[in-house]
UniProtKB/TrEMBL annotation:
InterPro entries: Ptyr_pPase (IPR023485), Ptyr_pPase_sf (IPR036196). One of its GO terms (biological process) is response to arsenic-containing substance. Transmembrane segments: none annotated. Coiled coil: none annotated. Pfam families: LMWPc (PF01451). It comes from Haloferax sulfurifontis ATCC BAA-897. This is ArsC protein. Gene3D superfamilies: 3.40.50.2300. Keywords: Arsenical resistance. Residues 18-150 form the Phosphotyrosine protein phosphatase I domain. The keyword Endoplasmic reticulum does not apply.
C-alpha cells in the first residue's frame, strides 16, 4: 500500500509522466541517495511534469543509515527525517523504470510487468567508512544525471 507522502509526485505531472523507482533491500542507503539526486535533477531541469520519482525497499529498515545521512548532508540534503518504506509488486506495476542498487530486479518486478529494469550493482554503504560512502554517493550522482540525460536530454 502506498501512502501519498511516500511517493514524490509533482502536482504538474501528467498521466504520461515517466515513473522511475529506485529500489534496494532496506531503502536506507543507495536508493535514498538516488532518490535525493533524482528529485534535485527533476527540479533543476524543470521536468516535474514528465518525471515522477518513487523509492522503496523489499525489507525496509527503520531509519536511513547514519553514514548516508552524513555524506548527503555534505551535499545539502537532509535525509535524517526520511523514512524507509516498502515497495511491492502492485506499486511496481505502475512504474516505467525500476533501478535496483545491487539486489537485482528478480523478485521485485512482477512477471507481467513490461517496464525497463536496471541494476546498478552498487556496494551497500551500511557500516562503511565515510570515504567509501562518499565514493558510492558520487557514483550514484553520476548515474542519476546520466539517466536524466537519457530520459529528458538538456530540456
Amino acid at each position: 500500500m502506498t501512502d501519498a507522502a511516500d511517493v514524490d509526485v509533482d502536482p504538474d505531472a501528467d498521466a504520461t509522466a515517466t515513473r522511475v523507482a529506485f529500489v534496494c533491500v532496506q531503502n536506507a542507503g543507495r536508493s535514498q541517495i538516488a532518490t535525493a539526486f533524482a528529485r534535485r535533477e527533476r527540479d533543476e531541469r524543470g521536468v516535474g511534469d514528465r518525471i515522477e520519482v518513487v523509492t522503496g525497499g523489499t525489507d525496509p529498515a527503520d531509519h536511513v543509515h547514519d553514514e548516508v545521512v552524513a555524506v548527503m548532508g555534505e551535499e545539502g540534503f537532509a535525509l535524517a527525517d526520511e523514512t524507509p518504506r516498502a515497495i511491492d509488486q502492485d506499486e511496481i506495476m505502475g512504474v516505467d523504470i525500476v533501478v535496483t542498487m545491487g539486489c537485482s530486479a528478480e523478485g521485485i518486478c512482477p512477471m507481467t510487468w513490461r517496464g525497463d529494469a536496471r541494476d546498478w550493482d552498487l556496494d551497500d554503504p551500511d557500516g562503511q567508512d565515510l570515504d567509501a560512502v562518499r565514493a558510492i554517493r558520487d557514483d550514484i550522482e553520476g548515474r542519476v544525471s546520466a539517466l536524466f540525460d537519457e530520459l529528458v536530454g538538456d530540456d
